[in-house]
Design a protein that fits this description.
- There is one protein chain.
- By secondary structure, the protein is α/β, with parallel strands linked by helices.
- The protein folds into 2 domains: 178 residues, Rossmann fold (3-Layer(aba) Sandwich); 223 residues, Dihydrodipicolinate Reductase, domain 2 (2-Layer Sandwich).
- Helix 6 links the parallel strand 4 and strand 5.
- The two termini are 37 Å apart.
- Bound molecules: nicotinamide-adenine-dinucleotide.
- Nicotinamide-adenine-dinucleotide binds next to helix 3.
- The site of nicotinamide-adenine-dinucleotide (NAD) has 25 residues, from helix 3.
């Protein structure tokens, strides 16, 4: 699919609501399913000795990735792009201070990443732009022969999810959604415990993104410039991947199981309205905004193997942070916030064990190996882990920990939750982006530094 069609589909979806949404659904279902995935499971591209990176969007999170990449051996940030020159100036400063050559800077407007993708000799284009730019940047990167990596969510429509899959397959390039929560210490310990069979068969999981972002959404800088706008456009789970990523790994999604269908429900939209009223005068333009995003979203996903996942989204109401992070197996349960574990036959019946007590025994090897190196990096070190693993996989020609199928299957929920909400929680099929390969795709193994 061309980029312009792609943009049009998304605009229609956002503007027209359910009619366009249903049309999009039909289009998604009738897509040709003829393209072959690379043989033997997931793509493993030729090894790259020095990974040359173009970074698009060097704001808060992009800046954090730039700092991480400067500490990772075997990569070089050769080009940077941002619509704000002060940010490419900042990136140039930190890159040269780290002893690397100055990157080429692209600051000529919101589509200047296209020039970066076309003109630069790069191996990877990595984007941490606002959500609406992830897909255009990734498609431009792949069509110009570069691997692509993006912040979350990878896409906001089912059509765009297919576009990423088709482009990755066509150009044989990685299209990776950088879900840092997959590298959280508790999440990785849970994966390790589950891999060892101690939880039995995981039958149900729960995850979410429950984060009071009201003050951030109303700032006149950074995310305040774009994140609140999405609350005026779409009543869906706009951020499903933090909660889903880790539980997907624990449930072998796209690697033995897959998301089959979803039902979703959203409650009233009050949090942002109340915040605006309490913080801005009556004549403020922020008081004139109309939000459609319900404050609490709850979705249920059924997998092809009959298992269940509950996903929640709430960024508009006062509450402490949580991603829930619960895995219920036939022999025990792990639950986050606070982190605790119950394994039948260990400890006292019916009593939680503090997860910290199990770290000595079950800490994921990657954390044991990288704890010190990751210290001080963004989000408790997990951002460094994901960047390190990305570069290592590219340098060694390995399949990446997260694949384009993970990016697509999780990000598709942005649109699907909105559509289910709009139609009395009607169940909706979640496309099988692997086209049947989920049955034989290799399991995610315990990865190392
Ligand atoms: N994984 C996480 O924990 C995490 C945390 C924060 C943000 N994020 C994600 O990172 C992304 C960026 O968020 P942020 O907090 O850094 O926001 P931000 O607003 O601080 O940064 C976005 C940057 O992109 C630039 N930009 C906007 N449009 C552009 C374009 N067309 N071309 C080039 N540059 C452009 C902006 O000028 C800005 O510098 C989002 O996708 C967000 O969801 C992820």
């Amino acid at each position: 699919m061309s980029e312009s069609t792609n943009d049009l589909d998304r605009r229609d979806f956002l503007k027209l609501g359910s009619a366009a949404v249903v049309a999009g659904a039909v289009a998604a279902r009738s897509r040709p399913t003829v393209q072959a995935q690379s043989s033997g499971g997931f793509l493993a591209a030729p090894p790259i000795d020095l990974v040359r990176i173009g970074f698009v969007g060097v704001g808060l999170q992009g800046g954090s990735h730039v700092n991480n990449l400067l500490k990772i051996p075997g990569c070089r940030i050769a080009a940077v792009c941002d619509i704000r020159k002060e940010r490419t100036d900042w990136a140039t400063k930190v890159i040269t201070e780290a002893g690397h050559p100055a990157p080429t800077a692209y600051t000529n407007g919101p589509r200047d990443f296209e020039r970066l993708c076309a003109d630069e000799d790069l191996d990877l284009v990595y984007t941490a732009t606002p959500w609406e730019w992830h897909v255009p940047v990734m498609l431009a990167a792949m069509s110009h022969g570069k691997h692509a990596a993006t912040e979350v969510p990878a896409a906001t429509s089912v059509e765009d999810c297919w576009a990423l899959v088709e482009s990755a397959e066509k150009y044989k390039k990685h299209a990776i959604m950088m879900e840092n929560c997959n590298y959280g210490r508790t999440e990785m310990m849970a994966f390790n415990i589950i891999k060892q069979g101690l939880l039995g068969d995981v039958l149900h999981a729960e995850g979410g993104y429950l984060h009071d972002l009201r003050s951030i959404k109303f700032e006149d800088r950074n995310e305040g410039l774009w994140r609140r706008a999405w609350a005026m456009k779409l009543n869906g789970n706009l951020y499903p991947t933090h909660g889903l990523g880790p539980v997907a790994n624990c449930m072998d999604i796209n690697r033995g199981d897959r998301y089959d269908y979803i039902v979703s429900m959203a409650g009233p939209s009050r949090g942002l309205q109340d915040w605006a009223r309490e913080h801005y005068p009556a004549d403020s333009s922020k008081r004139q905004e109309t939000y459609v995003l319900g404050d609490v979203h709850t979705s249920l996903v059924k997998t092809a193997n009959g298992k269940t996942i509950m996903v929640q989204f709430n960024t508009n109401l006062p509450r402490p942070y949580s991603r829930i992070n619960q895995m219920q197996g036939t022999k025990g349960i792990i639950q986050g916030y606070p982190d605790r574990v119950y394994i039948e036959g260990r400890g006292r019946n019916h009593q939680w064990v503090d997860a910290a007590e199990l770290r000595e025994e079950f800490d994921h090897p990657l954390w044991r190996e990288m704890d010190e190196r990751a210290a001080g990096a963004g989000h408790g070190g997990m951002d460094y882990m994901e960047d390190y693993r990305l570069i290592k996989c590219l340098r060694e020609g390995l399949a990446t920990d997260m694949t384009v199928y993970d990016a697509a299957s999780m990000s598709a929920l942005v649109e699907l939750t909105a559509r289910s909400n709009e139609s009395k929680s009607r169940p909706l099929d979640i496309p099988d982006f692997t086209r049947g390969q989920w049955r034989t795709n290799p399991k995610l193994e315990i990865v190392h530094a």
